[in-house]
Amino acid sequence: MYRTALVTASTEGIGKGIAKALAKQGFSLIITSRSENKIQQTLEELRKINPAVWGIKSDLTDPKSLENLVNFTLEKLRTIDLLILNTGNPPKEPATFEETTYEDWEYSIKLYLLSAIKLTKLLLPQMIKQKFGRIIYLSSWTVKEPQRIFVLADVSRAPLIQLTKILAKDYGKFGITFNTILLGSFDTPGAKRGIKKLAEKNKKTFEQVWKEEVLDRIPVGRIGNPEEDIGSLILYLYNASYMTGSYILLDGGNTNAV
Fold it and tell me: Is 255 a member of any domain?
């Protein structure tokens, strides 16, 4: 069975873990990054698992770059079955509202929300034509339980839940499903960079803040693994034609929200 996927922001951390999981399952893949060096390094690693992997430099905040990405994807794969919208973090975070500028908000909304809208609009016609598609937006548990230091991400990503519900109702008749995964803490370079910045701001050690803000909050007693934990859920959603319009918490029991 020929299965294809586009995973954005996929040369490190969560995106790379997902790409690796899909490559092991035989998906033909497109990976992206804003760094050409990271793309080449990741392609070298993933092609040892599965040779059907290609990469392209892409900026999620730039609509023209997203158009180029979709054209490249369809050129290489011919079809696209699965979109995983993963993103990095705004450079300003962690930050409280008073620490942000209007320009920070513009960037954050482009990164989290407008990229999802643009890519979905570009890919839907082909998915409608083939009467199959899976679109999964990656978000965070903090959109259900907002954190003041993640104000940019929490506010900018929250509408993805509403978008998921609306699109699921409109396009279910075409065999296309939409779901959002609300992620908890995962062992990634991005997560560690954020904790390092928070530790410096609060004049604490990285180890102290990592324990207080990450490990101690997770009831299952461990941090998440992108490839194993997120990858397995995405594979389930790919095959789950009856599951759409949902948000799924994948956070080790961290959030108190219902």
Answer: no
